[in-house]
Amino acid sequence: MSDNKTPLVSIIITNYNYARYIGETIESALAQTYGNIEIIVIDDGSQDGSDRVISKYSKKYNEINYIKQKNQGVVASRNLGIEEAKGAYIVFLDGDDRLPEDYIEETLKVAVNDGIDVVYTDFERFGEDDSKSNFCEYDKRKLRDKNYIHASSLIRRGAIGDIRFDENLSGLSHEDWDFILNLSYKGLKFKKTDKTWLLYRAHNLSRSVTNSEYALKAVKSYFYILDKYRTKYPGTMEITEESEVVEAWRLADERREIIAGQTKLIDDQRQHIIEQQKYIKNLESQITELTATIDNIVSSRRYKIASATGNAVHKVARLPKKIKKHVSK
Fold first, then answer.
1. Which of 5, 55, 57, 242 counts the most CB atoms within 10 A of its CB?
2. Above 80 in pLDDT, residue 138?
């Protein structure tokens, strides 16, 4: 095969505190059936021992370029990856995901044979979920409603030009959708392949729209992206029933309702505790008053006389028993 048929592919792995997974991710890149690859691993200031794991692989394999940076977020990490990549094509890979061994080979076939700029796949979840996505064929109108093209697609490096991940979305969400939208508006050619898929790890550390904080970030991100492209390309992006923001807003509303219900429950419990405390204080007051009354009675002269008389009567009552016992002796 000529050089045009065997272009260099850069796999850009971004990692933050995935020490337990990053080894699997790197190994999946090393195991590719397509041989002409470079692997760029960017650690974003991890604090969990990731450096030790990554260093072990980078020292052993020449095709690994290991870059460490202070924590700046996934946006900065991916942009650095673009700058460092030497390949004609790039693939982004999160530090907890994996690639099937034929991933580069199959996506690259489509890119080279059909002249495609962005080749995307479905993804198959593993870990806490084993479901598989069912993304549609490329439709730029649907892409403007919601993202169905993940960041681990095979992308022709030359087609990216000066497009980068938006720093304004750092710490928010949907930075991958914004990046893909940018490529779409630029007029790049997209195609889906069913020959392979991304292995996407599902676990409770992942960003999830079921998380209330993430849902609110998603809404904020969506409106930022919407305003951005409305300004740049008037009349091309509008909110519809299919828009991702509608779903994110619904989830946010559901979370707000749950939080409101929990807040009411806590308030009710707090009020119950306050009432119980008042009841206990009332009992304590009554006990204090009763104790004082008893003390007054015990210390009174009449009580003392009555007590002395009672003791004398008790002694007299026991006298016959003592006399009888004495006589029997």
1. 57
2. yes
